[in-house]
Amino acid sequence: MSASEKIKEYKNALRVGWFLAYRQIRHAGKGTTSLIIFIMVLTFLNLVVVSGLLVGLIAGSFQQFREGYSGEVIITPAPGRSYVENSAPLISYLENHPGVSTVSPRHSTSAQILGTLSDLPEKNERPNRIGARLVGIDPGREEALTRFSRFVAYGENLRPDQEGYILIGANLLKKYSSFADANIPGLDLLKDVDVGSRVRLTITLTDGAVVRKDFTVKGVLKSKIDEVSARIFITDKELKRMLPINQEQFQEIAVRSDYARAPALVSELKEFMGSHAALIQTTDQAIPSFLRDIETTMGILGNALSSIALVVASITIFIVIFINAVTKRKFIGIMKGIGISPQAIQFSYVLQALFYGLSGSFLGLILTFGVLKPYFNAHPINFPFSDGILVATPDGAAVRVIILVVVTLFAGYIPAKLIVRRNTLDAILGR
């Protein structure tokens, strides 16, 4: 048989198989068909949603880090340096850059904070004091970049025209910290400090000089971002007056831009800085590598769990097609007897399996991108360390659709092949 004749034969088999599949699906029980499609929908959701939620636990913390602290680009001092060199020209460049929407430069230094000013500690009692990172911010700039006021859980936010006030992260206070009831060696928390309390900041300068100043706690910050909940904040103007340094020497510069353009912006900034030293990173580069490893591990775990659902779905399709073919052995034998090719019969069962796989995938896509993803974006899962979201992309979903359809086709082809290859006369006589 020539190649053209073989192609023609397969075309005819496919056409007849399509007709037979259409007839069988149309006359099949609606309950059975709906149940099979429902199983395929659940399988698709297992493939996409389970791994998406596991990865979303870590991706949610990355998103919070970007939106609540770093922006799309974060600039910090180069290793061995205490400030970002060439800060003033760099900020001016950023403020006039068309791809930058907001810039928030920050001063920061190490400080000691004393929570009890009226009573001295008793003998052998540790003073009510802890060390923390002190950050000086411009409240207006910070609000524009991170919506900083949303982190003020108790009290009020800082105002540029006020002095003598401080904001303290909740994880530094025994009353509000998530770790207050944990007996962790070396973990010190401020006791009896709340909104309205008086505290004393102590800063030790590089030359050994000590600067002290009393502040009133104006607010308590609560966030799942450590750079917010484990720091203390005052206005940058007040911190500048406390530190005898060049007022344009910043320790952090957060930049808000388009997420997709961030790598290109980093390259431009490095070129602009030239010989001046600074660590310029996208928010993804600034995230510690161990968190990336956790994200990868979560993805592997999600795929492992999803593969179990895929096996269950393939077995389900195999059983459905096999039972359907077995119960119609006589019918299959008669079709073969009147001249319908075995390939056409096999195609009919494979197309039925394809129908179930595509229908389940289509409904799964609607549920994932039309219902579940918008829902989890609006209502993230409240975990102690992050707000979990559903990570699902069109490209990733397309790959899973292909996997599900391919597995379904094999699950439909194998039982059809086993039944059709039987002797025609035996099939007709039920032997």
Automatic annotation (TrEMBL):
<keyword id="KW-1003">Cell membrane</keyword>
<feature type="transmembrane region" description="Helical">
    <location>
        <begin position="35"/>
        <end position="59"/>
    </location>
</feature>
<feature type="transmembrane region" description="Helical">
    <location>
        <begin position="304"/>
        <end position="326"/>
    </location>
</feature>
<dbReference type="InterPro" id="IPR051447">
    <property type="entry name" value="Lipoprotein-release_system"/>
</dbReference>
<keyword id="KW-0472">Membrane</keyword>
<feature type="domain" description="ABC3 transporter permease C-terminal">
    <location>
        <begin position="304"/>
        <end position="423"/>
    </location>
</feature>
<dbReference type="GO" id="GO:0044874">
    <property type="term" value="P:lipoprotein localization to outer membrane"/>
</dbReference>
<feature type="transmembrane region" description="Helical">
    <location>
        <begin position="347"/>
        <end position="372"/>
    </location>
</feature>
<keyword id="KW-0812">Transmembrane</keyword>
<dbReference type="Pfam" id="PF02687">
    <property type="entry name" value="FtsX"/>
</dbReference>
<comment type="similarity">
    <text>Belongs to the ABC-4 integral membrane protein family. LolC/E subfamily.</text>
</comment>
<feature type="transmembrane region" description="Helical">
    <location>
        <begin position="397"/>
        <end position="416"/>
    </location>
</feature>
<dbReference type="GO" id="GO:0098797">
    <property type="term" value="C:plasma membrane protein complex"/>
</dbReference>
<dbReference type="InterPro" id="IPR003838">
    <property type="entry name" value="ABC3_permease_C"/>
</dbReference>
<keyword id="KW-1133">Transmembrane helix</keyword>
<protein>
    <submittedName>
        <fullName>ABC-type transport system permease component LolE</fullName>
    </submittedName>
</protein>
